[in-house]
Amino acid sequence: MNAVLIAPHKYVQGSDVLAEAGSLIAAIGKKPLVLWDKKVKAIVGKTLLASLAAAKLKVTDVAFKGDSTHAEADRVAGLAAKAKADVIIGVGGGKALDTAKAAAAATKARVVTIPTIASNDSPTSSYTVWYDEKGNCMGFESWGVNPDLVLVDTRVIANGPVQAFVAGMGDALATWIEARVCLQTRSPNLAGGVSTQAAMALAQLACDILLEYGLEAKRAVEKKVVTPAVEKVVEANVLLSGVGFESGGVATAHMIANCLPSLPECHKLMHGQEVGFGIISQLCLEEDVEVEEIYEIVDFEIAVGLPVTFADLGLAGVKRSRLEPIGKICAGEGSLCQAHPFKVTPESVVDAMIAADALGTARKRLTTEPQRR
Ligand SMILES: [Zn+2]
Q1: How many angstroms does the Cα of residue 19 sit away from the middle of ligand 1?
Q2: Number of domains in the chain
Q3: Residue 212 C-alpha to ligand 1 middle, in angstroms?
Q4: Which of 9, 81, 170, 279 has its CA 20 to 30 A from that of 272?
Q5: Ligand 1 centroid vs 254 CA: distance in angstroms?
């Protein structure tokens, strides 16, 4: 299999960089369609529209209905065709960005993503995650191309919800832990090949940055300020994690995360929070991980507030029988868990989740109880 890396054409990140959107987007298209919901427009609308107007771009303004469904993507594509839009700008969270990508693919327009939270890997990727009208995940689809421009205003991110920022750290932390599994077994990445050394370096860098600066960045975002730590962690959450997962590959951490929403108690969790627990479960499943490394990862997750126990997921006291369907899916045909160099069974997955909960509970007790002098 060939080594393949895919990435956005251009990535621009900085505090108040949104004011430069017009000149950056004018180089890509002349008739932009902007897709955003009311809440996002209230936050960034004035700055973005002023910048597009200053660049003499005629904007079609479309209100996003909130879910990346086929119907919503068709509606936006219809409006884009009618307006002859040559670039679709998705602004907001992953669902708005994913819908913009789908509508752009349908109308052969170019794509700009402007994430207002750094919680997931949508901004840089070639994928749309599809949902149905009830909010259930229906799988994902690649468009074969990555966004033409990813524009990340760190001032906007720092003023966003802390929980989303932390969830993004969960998704980014998994990148290295999963990519190294895929490299070991030469499992395919999501770019249609095996990992390049470049993708591996980006994935590892994301992990290093988080362990060093993650907690500092979280403290800054709690105060809604932009610091060098915030800049570093935003880059890890958005660029390094985004390119790293797509060109590095995913494994059990994401497989468990994708299964957790089948339990109603987990419905309110963000993707990156589910991945956070998936990471600990994967580390408990793996055969060759050093205990010291597991403790470092668990303690980091506890420090920033990612879920490491069943109670954190809303599943306190969950019975083994309720986890067994997840074990079956993880051990089944086409599962991401097949990336590992050993056989994953339904029992081993459930055992790993229970071990993760026990580990998380024990480390929490250690880190929260006052230490004796
Ligand atoms: Zn993810």
Answers
A1: 29
A2: 2
A3: 21
A4: 9
A5: 6
pLDDT tens digit string along 235-284?
A: 999 999 999 999 999 999 999 999 998 899 998 999 999 999 999 999 99
Last residue of a domain, one of 158, 174, 190: 158
Cα of first residue to Cα of last residue in the chain, in angstroms, is 56
- Mean pLDDT throughout 113-124? 96
What is the distance in A from the centroid of ligand 1 to the CA of 298?
Answer: 18
Please say if the pLDDT value at position 231 is more than 50: yes
What DSSP string describes 37-92?
Answer: -HHHHHHHHHHHHHHHHHTT--PEEEE--SS--HHHHHHHHHHHHHHT-SEEEEEE
Neighbours of 267 (CB within 10 A): 12
For residue 334, pLDDT over 50 is answered with yes
Range of the domain at 69: 11-158
- At residue 207 the predicted structure's pLDDT band, cuts being 50, 70 and 90, is very high
CA of residue 49 to ligand 1 center, whole Å: 31
- What's the gap in Å between 58 CA and the centre of ligand 1? 35
Q: Residue 145 maps to which CATH number?
A: 3.40.50.1970
CATH of the domain at 283: 1.20.1090.10
Q: Is 351 inside any structural domain?
A: yes
Quote the ligand 1 centre to 293 CA distance (angstroms): 21
* Rounded distance from Cα 53 to ligand 1 centre (Å): 35
Classify burial at 13, counting beta carbons within 10 Å of its beta carbon; exposed 0-12, middle 13-18, buried 19 or more. Answer: middle
